[in-house]
Amino acid sequence: AFFANKVEHESRHCNGKVLQRQGSSAFDRVYTANQNCGHAYPTFLAVLWCAGLLCSQAPAAFAGLMYLFVRQKYFVGYLGERTQSTPGYLFGKRIILFLFLMSVAGILNYYLVFFFGSDFEIHIKTITSAISPLLLIP
């Protein structure tokens, strides 16, 4: 809602009309940042749900909250110069990778239980709980 509100505000500020795509470079930056964030959220939601369901809910929820803050940083950075959005983008990629690896670990654990009867769920939860605070390191 914040992103869409910024696009509407910038559109009115530049053109006086609601949501016209032609405008200043400020409007183009806001519009592009909004589109980039909108295109990234389906991937984020898919890996977040998979990591939470297949591996561990607490580290997945922590990583999900971190991702929302990072996307906010990316959006605000994109409104300035494009180089200001790079740290938010790279940090977001790292969080998506963490959630993806959690999902893969959960799937591998399922198949280990199914085929070999070995359950490593406790070990996986311990490892992901220990690694998730490392996401705070820039």
TrEMBL record:
<feature type="transmembrane region" description="Helical">
    <location>
        <begin position="46"/>
        <end position="70"/>
    </location>
</feature>
<feature type="transmembrane region" description="Helical">
    <location>
        <begin position="91"/>
        <end position="112"/>
    </location>
</feature>
<dbReference type="GO" id="GO:0004364">
    <property type="term" value="F:glutathione transferase activity"/>
</dbReference>
<comment type="subunit">
    <text>Homotrimer. Interacts with LTC4S and ALOX5.</text>
</comment>
<dbReference type="GO" id="GO:0031965">
    <property type="term" value="C:nuclear membrane"/>
</dbReference>
<dbReference type="InterPro" id="IPR001446">
    <property type="entry name" value="5_LipOase_AP"/>
</dbReference>
<keyword id="KW-0434">Leukotriene biosynthesis</keyword>
<dbReference type="GO" id="GO:0008047">
    <property type="term" value="F:enzyme activator activity"/>
</dbReference>
<protein>
    <recommendedName>
        <fullName>Arachidonate 5-lipoxygenase-activating protein</fullName>
    </recommendedName>
</protein>
<dbReference type="Pfam" id="PF01124">
    <property type="entry name" value="MAPEG"/>
</dbReference>
<keyword id="KW-0472">Membrane</keyword>
<keyword id="KW-0812">Transmembrane</keyword>
<dbReference type="GO" id="GO:0005789">
    <property type="term" value="C:endoplasmic reticulum membrane"/>
</dbReference>
<dbReference type="InterPro" id="IPR001129">
    <property type="entry name" value="Membr-assoc_MAPEG"/>
</dbReference>
<dbReference type="GO" id="GO:0019370">
    <property type="term" value="P:leukotriene biosynthetic process"/>
</dbReference>
<keyword id="KW-1133">Transmembrane helix</keyword>
<dbReference type="InterPro" id="IPR050997">
    <property type="entry name" value="MAPEG"/>
</dbReference>
<dbReference type="InterPro" id="IPR023352">
    <property type="entry name" value="MAPEG-like_dom_sf"/>
</dbReference>
<dbReference type="GO" id="GO:0004464">
    <property type="term" value="F:leukotriene-C4 synthase activity"/>
</dbReference>
<keyword id="KW-0539">Nucleus</keyword>
<dbReference type="GO" id="GO:0004602">
    <property type="term" value="F:glutathione peroxidase activity"/>
</dbReference>
<keyword id="KW-0256">Endoplasmic reticulum</keyword>
<comment type="function">
    <text>Required for leukotriene biosynthesis by ALOX5 (5-lipoxygenase). Anchors ALOX5 to the membrane. Binds arachidonic acid, and could play an essential role in the transfer of arachidonic acid to ALOX5. Binds to MK-886, a compound that blocks the biosynthesis of leukotrienes.</text>
</comment>
